[in-house]
Design brief:
It contains 11 helices and 14 strands. It is α/β, with parallel strands linked by helices. The strands form 2 sheets. Strands 1, 4, 5, 8, 9, 10, 11, 12, 13 and 14 form a 10-stranded mixed sheet that branches. The chain has a 4-stranded mixed sheet with strand order 3-2-6-7. A hairpin with a 4-residue loop joins strand 12 and strand 13. The longest helix is centred in the middle third of the chain and has 16 residues. The radius of gyration is 19 Å and the shape is globular.
């Protein structure tokens, strides 16, 4: 299998039980997660040598984060220890017409204040096949943005395929700041992943599709994919497409373009959604595995969409599914019958 590197922040997620509201509970469930950490767990589950790069404090909470990754087979050799804080986020799970809600408490986390000297990116990228990052990492601080650039440069020096999940987060930065940082980083990227909002807010591209109104004709995306590929010379552009009927009922499919063929996946009706957090990350992890493993981009995309549909039935950030389970769903087995 392949050596896959991801760079980012793993956070402590605190959530009320079930669909309770923040203000009515006196205890929270502890869950570990975060964009690139979630991708690393997915890739490890698929049998790859997945390495997560970050910085965590030396105290016990930092060690608990390391242990959470090790539990699912992620290599933690490149996690630097130091700093004062593990980032925290609170997540209230929505239901029906009430949306989920996230509150961040991640300022001054260890990775947001990490220095270039904390990482030897040439050693990290040596022998690697794939490097993945998301727009969340450069958004957390200017220092983290610079680390992302250094990692991308090292990946290119070592001939590593680079993917990005654009992942715009309005609670972390503005569209103007995002574009000023993200656009220059696109020259290092081979595979660009993001939904319609991410493409507009991070890169300034707006598809001709009204997702809120249910008008999700894939042709509206093809033209924008072509423009993105022409400007940034990506090898692949992929986008998930979520039709949000309620917090617990979504339509889910995706598209991919390699400069020649525009491929649209099958559509999944996810009802009920158990936990949509990490859905996009599980798509990225599935697409990385798919592009490394299968012969066609269509096969790779179908694996990624099935994997991310399954994730949304699992509590927590991590996608805890096997290749066999994903391939069974991608192949048409979606009745949910008990397997005896």
């Amino acid at each position: 299998m392949s050596k896959i590197i991801t760079l980012g922040e793993i956070m402590l997620r605190l959530s009320p039980e079930g669909c309770c509201r923040f203000i009515e509970v006196d205890r929270f469930n502890l869950i570990w997660g975060g964009g690139e950490a979630n991708v690393a767990v997915s890739c490890a589950n698929y049998g790859h040598d997945a390495y997560f790069v970050s910085k965590l404090p030396t105290h016990e909470i930092g060690q608990a984060a390391v242990n959470a990754l090790r539990r699912y087979g992620v290599h933690t050799d490149y996690i630097t220890r130091g700093g004062d804080r593990v980032g925290i986020y609170y997540c209230e799970t929505g239901v029906s017409m009430r949306p989920s809600k996230v509150i961040y408490d991640r300022a001054h986390s260890a990775i947001s204040e990490a220095d270039p000297e904390d990482f030897d990116f040439d050693r990290i990228m040596e022998g690697a096949d794939w490097f993945h990052w998301s727009g969340i990492t450069p958004a957390i601080s200017d220092k983290a943005a610079y680390l992302t650039k250094l990692a991308c440069e090292a990946a290119k020096r070592h001939g590593v395929t680079v993917s990005v999940d654009l992942n715009f987060r309005k609670k972390l930065w503005t569209s103007e700041k995002a574009q000023s940082i993200m656009k220059p980083l696109m020259k290092y990227v081979d595979v660009c992943i993001g939904n319609e909002e991410d493409a507009e807010l991070c890169l300034g591209f707006k598809p001709e599709a009204d997702v809120e109104g249910g008008n999700t004709d894939a042709e509206g995306y093809k033209a924008i994919f072509e423009l993105m590929m022409k400007e940034f010379e990506f090898k692949y552009v992929a986008s998930t497409l979520r039709e949000s009927y309620s917090a617990t009922h979504n339509g889910w499919k995706a598209m991919i373009f390699d400069g020649k063929e525009f491929y649209v996946s099958k559509r999944y009706d996810i009802n009920p959604i158990i936990d949509r957090v990490g859905g996009g990350d599980s798509f990225s992890g599935g697409l990385i595995h798919g592009l490394l493993t299968y012969k066609t981009q269509g096969e790779a995309l179908e694996f990624a969409v099935a994997a991310s549909a399954l994730k949304q039935t699992i509590p927590g950030d991590f996608n805890l599914v096997t290749i066999a389970e994903v391939e069974a769903l991608a192949g048409g087995s979606s009745n949910g019958r008990v397997q005896r």
